[in-house]
């Protein structure tokens, strides 16, 4: 059993035997039992996807149709009218700014740090790695008040940069852990060979390391982007009218009175769409990213 | 500059230990790490020091005339005598355990179902991960208004439809929001975190060595025997990892509570309670005392949790 439980080791990729023959034995269950299991898988997929489908259906209804739950009703695009102008547009642009800027800066900080924790490890590199992870375990809400007071004192209230810095702090540990696990896959022999040939650090980074970790870099960026795009607590506390991001705008788009469900579903669908598409496109990378590189 | 990087021995050598190695080389090795480390220390540790300071002064947002006087442990005494806060700790544990266990169980079932080849497996997987990609605020709002709402929500719509079939045309008075508020908060979280558990467990299932399974099957082991004696022990690490990572996020759940129940009827967890103290009561001293206690509590829990993670590391550290 010891041979099979070692797969989670971050260095496993260097030593593990080829995976190719494993996929081949994935069972092809035939017969009635197999058909039933496949049907069950399909059923559960539809159950889990149904709320999203329902959101999409409601978003194409008039408010009065949305208020009486029926499977079928007349389609209308009215809820999407004007959705890409005014406040929604500002919120989407703010979210885009916060998510993209923080992701780029996190990557710039995380690549060298991950390098110093894997390929040329500093002393006590495990302690450093776990220090980064431990900051992730602190409930963010404990930092909410001091961060709120500090940003106000520095004159950064309702400023998107306050969010960018917070999202960087939140995602940096994840990015370092992930990138480290990708860097460990760079074959050492190639780095050594390049060094023997007299290649400098920058050449090695560009010609040897980058090509190998490029997919990992994309996966890391995706995870950072998703977490920043979806974050609500700090966005709620640190922003006002100007720097309001999509989740805050969404929370504010329920009317205190009158019917709002169809409109709400349209806004919700629009703000969810970027992450939904990005996640679907890169779904093979999700597991590794979400498990900080531990699961391949 | 390049002298240190050209040294071929440095690449495979263990972290520098000899004191003879010159200072410059050590600094060079450390340099790439420093920007990230300094940034993280400043942004995560400075606020904590500030919290520590506020926790021992009196600071009432709504009464600035009182100033910021040193009050000793008064704020901490206030926190410890706060019955509602103890309740919030319990709710946090309850909610986390409920969500983690249910999504783990559902995720395991789904992972087992997907660890077979069948028509449309890729589509099924794509549909199943979708809930995890939905913005948590959108998920909470969707469940609250499109599903739970007593008048126009789908759940009561279906119940009333079924009652109508059986000749009962009075609308039901049942509402998950009033009858099972904690469950109402948990459902969107379970819906979103089940795909996460499924993804990790599926990766675990697919990393099983095929030859062992094959040998077991040839030896005539039943599907249940193979699952219990080979698959489950193999999955243990993956189960631990999904519980650990899931808990880190679900302990912090805020959006669902803020949206679905606003903390009423015993659904206030710690993050929401601290948020409320800060925004509603405006007593910054007490808020900070709560923050300090949460951080200490987290350190205790995290030390335990990190042991799980570092067990995954042991072999590497030893090698």
From TrEMBL, chain A:
- What are the transmembrane regions? 36-59, 98-117, 129-148, 160-179, 208-229, 260-282
The ABC transmembrane type-1 domain covers 92-282
Keywords for the protein's UniProt record, in alphabetical order: Cell membrane, Membrane, Transmembrane, Transmembrane helix, Transport
Its predominant location is membrane
User: PROSITE patterns given for it?
Assistant: ABC_TM1
Keyword DNA-binding belongs to the record: no
This protein's membrane topology, according to the annotation, is: Multi-pass membrane protein
| Pfam annotation, one family | BPD_transp_1
Checking SUPFAM superfamilies in the record gives: MetI-like
Q: Does the keyword Hydrolase apply?
A: no
Tell me where it resides: Cell membrane
Q: Which family does it belong to?
A: Belongs to the binding-protein-dependent transport system permease family.
The name under which this protein is listed is Carbohydrate ABC transporter permease
* Organism this protein belongs to: Jatrophihabitans telluris
Q: What are the leading ranks of the lineage?
A: Bacteria, Bacillati, Actinomycetota, Actinomycetes, Jatrophihabitantales
UniProtKB/TrEMBL annotation, chain B:
Q: Which domain of life is it from?
A: Bacteria
Q: How does it sit in the membrane?
A: Multi-pass membrane protein
Among PROSITE patterns, the record links this protein to:
ABC_TM1
**Keyword Membrane appears in the UniProt entry:** yes
Which positions, given as ranges, span the membrane? 33-56, 95-114, 126-143, 182-205, 238-260, 291-313
| Intracellular or extracellular location(s) | Cell membrane
Q: What protein is this chain from?
A: Sugar ABC transporter permease
Annotated organism of origin: Jatrophihabitans telluris
């Amino acid at each position: 059993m010891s041979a099979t439980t070692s797969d989670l080791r971050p260095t496993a990729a260097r030593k593990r035997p080829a995976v190719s023959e494993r996929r081949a034995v994935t069972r092809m269950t035939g017969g009635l039992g197999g058909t039933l299991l496949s049907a069950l898988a399909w059923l559960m997929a539809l159950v889990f996807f149904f709320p999203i489908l329902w959101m999409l259906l409601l978003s194409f209804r008039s408010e009065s149709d949305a208020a009486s739950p029926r499977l079928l009703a007349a389609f209308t695009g009215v809820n999407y009218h004007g959705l890409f102008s005014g406040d929604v547009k500002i919120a989407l642009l703010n979210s885009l700014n916060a998510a993209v800027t923080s992701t780029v800066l996190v990557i710039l900080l995380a690549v060298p740090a991950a390098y110093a924790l894997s390929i040329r490890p500093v002393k006590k590199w495990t302690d450093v790695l776990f220090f980064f992870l431990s900051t992730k375990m602190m409930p963010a809400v404990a930092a909410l008040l001091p961060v709120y007071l500090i940003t106000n004192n520095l004159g950064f209230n309702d400023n998107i940069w306050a969010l960018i810095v917070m999202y960087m702090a939140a995602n940096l540990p994840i990015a370092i852990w992930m990138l480290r696990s990708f860097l460990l896959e760079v074959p050492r022999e190639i780095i050594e060979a390049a060094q023997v040939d007299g290649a400098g650090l920058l050449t090695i980074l560009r010609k040897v390391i980058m090509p190998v970790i490029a997919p990992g870099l994309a996966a890391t960026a995706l995870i950072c982007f998703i977490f920043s795009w979806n974050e609500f607590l700090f966005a709620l506390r640190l922003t006002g009218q100007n720097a309001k991001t999509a989740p805050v705008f969404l929370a504010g788009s329920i009317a205190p009175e009158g019917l709002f469900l169809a409109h709400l579903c349209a806004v919700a669908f629009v703000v969810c769409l970027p992450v939904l598409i990005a996640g679907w496109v890169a779904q093979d990378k999700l597991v590794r990213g979400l498990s900080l590189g531990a699961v391949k | 500059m390049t002298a240190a990087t050209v040294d071929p021995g440095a690449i495979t050598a263990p972290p520098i230990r000899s004191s003879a190695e010159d200072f410059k080389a050590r600094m060079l090795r450390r340099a790439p790490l420093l920007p990230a480390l300094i940034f993280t220390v400043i942004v995560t540790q400075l606020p904590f020091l500030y919290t520590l300071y506020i926790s021992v002064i009196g600071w009432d947002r709504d009464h600035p005339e009182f100033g910021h006087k040193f009050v000793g442990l008064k704020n901490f005494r206030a926190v410890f005598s706060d019955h509602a806060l103890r309740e919030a700790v319990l709710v946090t544990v309850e909610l986390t355990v409920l969500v983690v266990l249910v999504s783990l169980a559902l995720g395991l079932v789904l992972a087992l179902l997907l660890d077979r080849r069948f028509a449309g497996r890729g589509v099924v997987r794509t549909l199943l991960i979708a809930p995890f990609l939905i913005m948590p605020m959108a998920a909470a709002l969707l469940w609250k208004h499109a599903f739970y709402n007593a008048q126009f929500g789908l759940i009561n719509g279906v119940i009333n439809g079924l009652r109508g079939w059986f000749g009962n045309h009075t609308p039901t008075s049942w509402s998950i929001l009033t009858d099972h508020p904690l469950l109402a908060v948990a459902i969107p979280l379970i819906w979103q975190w089940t795909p996460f558990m499924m993804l990790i467990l599926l990766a675990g299932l697919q990393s099983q060595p095929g030859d062992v399974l094959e040998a077991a099957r040839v030896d005539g082991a039943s599907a249940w025997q193979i699952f219990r004696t080979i698959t489950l022990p193999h999955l243990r690490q993956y189960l631990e990892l999904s519980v650990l990572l899931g808990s880190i996020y679900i302990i912090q759940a805020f959006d669902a509570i803020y949206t679905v129940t606003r903390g009423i009827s015993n659904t206030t967890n710690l993050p929401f309670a601290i948020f409320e103290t800060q925004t509603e009561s405006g007593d910054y001293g007490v808020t900070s005392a709560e923050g300090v206690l949460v951080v200490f509590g987290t350190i205790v829990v995290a030390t335990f949790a990190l042991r799980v993670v570092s067990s995954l590391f042991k072999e590497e550290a030893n090698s």
